[in-house]
Amino acid sequence: MIFISIFNKKYMNKILLIIFLSLFFSCNNDDNDDNFEIKSRATSNNFTIQKDTIKVLAIGNSFSEDAVENHLSKLAESAGKKIVIGNLYYGGASLDFHLQSTQSDAHIYRYYKYNLKNEINIINSYNIKRALNDEKWDYVSMQQVSQNSGMYATFVTPLPLLIKYINTNTIGYDPKIILHQTWAYSPTSTHLGFANYNNNQLYMYRSIVEAYELSKKDFNIDFIVPTGTGIQNARTTSLGNDLTRDGYHLNLRVGRYIAACVWFEKLFKVNVIGNKYKPEGVSDLEIKLIQQAAHYAVLKPSKITDIK
Known about the structure:
Layout: H1 2-43, E1 53-60, H2 62-68, H3 72-78, E2 82-89, H4 95-104, E3 109-114, E4 120-126, H5 128-132, E5 139-142, H6 153-156, H7 158-169, E6 176-180, H8 201-218, E7 223-225, H9 227-234, H10 255-268, H11 284-299
Parallel strand pairs: 1-2, 1-5, 5-6, 6-7
Antiparallel strand pairs: 2-3, 3-4
Helix pairs in contact: 4-7, 9-10, 9-11, 10-11
């Protein structure tokens, strides 16, 4: 009896140890599989994020302000979606400027943060690293300063270094890197940078498309938000071929709404046509034209579509 008792105790302890180790390694393997799947999704250019809540950070200037700060949250809300928006703003900032600010860790930006309730918080003296880690962003957007947006050579040095900085300084997550395609100026713009394009709107637009497409290909950008094409599509309509308030910034009534519609459809993968959000002072006909212009920009981001 004593022998049997010792035998049972001896082997029972081994059995319990085997069960414990099996459970332990099973849990660890499950965790590793989940982590691998998440990492793969975050780093694969073929994976498309499709979800109801999106977090996007724009490292930009007044052109990103025109695009994301005014109507995007309300378009999302109307479609039953949610969005957190960060706009790291410095007026007239180029890609070179942003790169220099990372190298000096400069606290020179104004940070506009819109939460899930579209409530805004504005913080001065912000820097890029802090903004990158304020949220686990799904997307981090960059853009070239408008007068250089159609000049590919101005992307070549700063953009890959900025991408490297973002990838190195995002702690615990891997955002998609996207480019915000800016728009061509008004035909009558007096902006000095318009001379880079022979003061020709169509030439400027085509140059922007080419520069952004090359940058996407050469620097492994996840996708382009084709705001410039959305604006150019809208310029084929009765809305007119200007759509700016000063020759280069978008006008407040319809220009900014066009940009937001492009961003909405591109981010959420939801057709903006039929979205019920209607900015004050914009007619039903204008809404129809704008939403079509934005939709076809997403479908054909490198080509102007005549909107009827």
